[in-house]
Amino acid sequence: MYGFLIAVGVLLLLSIIWMVYRIQTLVSVVKGSDKKIASSSNKINAILFVVFLVAVGGLMFWYSIKEFDNYQLPIASEHGVVTDQLFWITMAVTGVVFLITHVLLFIFPYKYQYKENRKATFYPDNNKLEIIWTVVPGIVLAGLVISGWMAWSDITAPAPENAHVVEIMGYQFAWDIRYPGKDNILGDYDYRLTTAQNGMGVDFSDKNAIDDFSSPVVVIPKGEPVLFKIRARDVLHSVFAPHMRLKMDAVPGMPTRFWFVPTKTTAEMREELGNPEFNYEIACTEICGQGHNSMRRVIEVVEPAEYQKWVSEQKTFIQTNPALADGIEVEVKEVADIQK
């Protein structure tokens, strides 16, 4: 460790000495005491600009093509098509501008490197040019922003009445899942009711909560709207399902939502990818603490009939843990007994 620190110190010292030498040279040039304004390093640096442009540009294109399938995942939701279209349109617009400006940025130092016989052209302003490069980007960016806002408004708008509701609660360091049961209405919750047995703080005095149940896997039907109701128990988390093109923050005290329509079952995606071990998943994309990497839940997309069968087979919170019914009102307890 000490050897590494000594080596770093030596490099820093040499860098400082070199910088002092360069500053002295520049001061001499300004004072006119150094007749040699440009050295051979001027041409070398100009050439290196072009070499860097070609080498790094080639590496960027090679890597982007080589890893394309790893960052362009198959789409498994209806709105994912719109999201990807917006992404690639934005990438095309900004990519063209990026390439043009950076090619010029690296070519100009080579083309206009210092030469004793060359005199710089004084070109203070051009009103027409100023208007063009202000108005055109403004119009293009407005189009991109409005398109994104329209897509976002559709995603975060109230879900269809027939949407299947799933509540996802993030906490350090896992996700808890709650389904509303046959009535498709989630019961109330209150953070003050949170205990070791009732981690989601479900209020079982609410009749709608009696048939709620939990699941270790997020099971959803293909081709039907699904509404994720998202919240957090402690710190900021973020629900991310990449194949669904779904991302929404889980904020303590501020429930959020995201609805979508899955288009491919897990079995269909496994066949498409040729990977029998594939699973959709929810990951957390907000650094929420030391166990952040463990926040993962599997999503299983099934056919609607299989989904209905699965729902009918699930046991409610109270069926799993009858102690949760202790202390609730008699009428509600009767409903709970009927559910059993």
List the topology elements.
Blueprint: H1 2-31, H2 40-66, H3 68-71, H4 78-111, H5 127-156, E1 164-171, E2 174-179, E3 213-214, E4 218-221, E5 226-232, E6 237-241, E7 246-250, E8 256-260, H6 266-273, E9 280-284, E10 296-302, H7 304-313, H8 317-320, H9 330-339
Parallel strand pairs: 1-5, 4-10
Antiparallel strand pairs: 1-2, 2-3, 5-8, 6-7, 6-9, 9-10
Helix pairs in contact: 2-4, 4-5
Catalytic activity: 4 Fe(II)-[cytochrome c] + O2 + 8 H(+)(in) = 4 Fe(III)-[cytochrome c] + 2 H2O + 4 H(+)(out)
Domain Cytochrome oxidase subunit II copper A binding: 161-313
Family: Belongs to the cytochrome c oxidase subunit 2 family.
Question: Which class of secondary structure composition applies to the elements?
Answer: alpha+beta
Helical fraction equals 40-55%
Inertia-based shape: elongated
Oligomer: single chain
Look at the structure and give the mean pLDDT: 88
Intertermini distance: 65 Å
Please, how many domains?
Answer: 2
The CATH architecture of the largest domain would be: Sandwich
For this structure, the CATH topology of the largest domain is Immunoglobulin-like
Question: How is the largest sheet built, in terms of strand order?
Answer: 3-2-1-5-8
Number of helices: 9
Q: Which range does the strand content fall in?
A: 15-25%
Radius of gyration: 30 Å
Keywords: Copper, Electron transport, Membrane, Metal-binding, Respiratory chain, Translocase, Transmembrane, Transmembrane helix, Transport
Enzyme class: translocase
Domain Cytochrome oxidase subunit II copper A binding: 161-313
GO cellular component, one term: plasma membrane
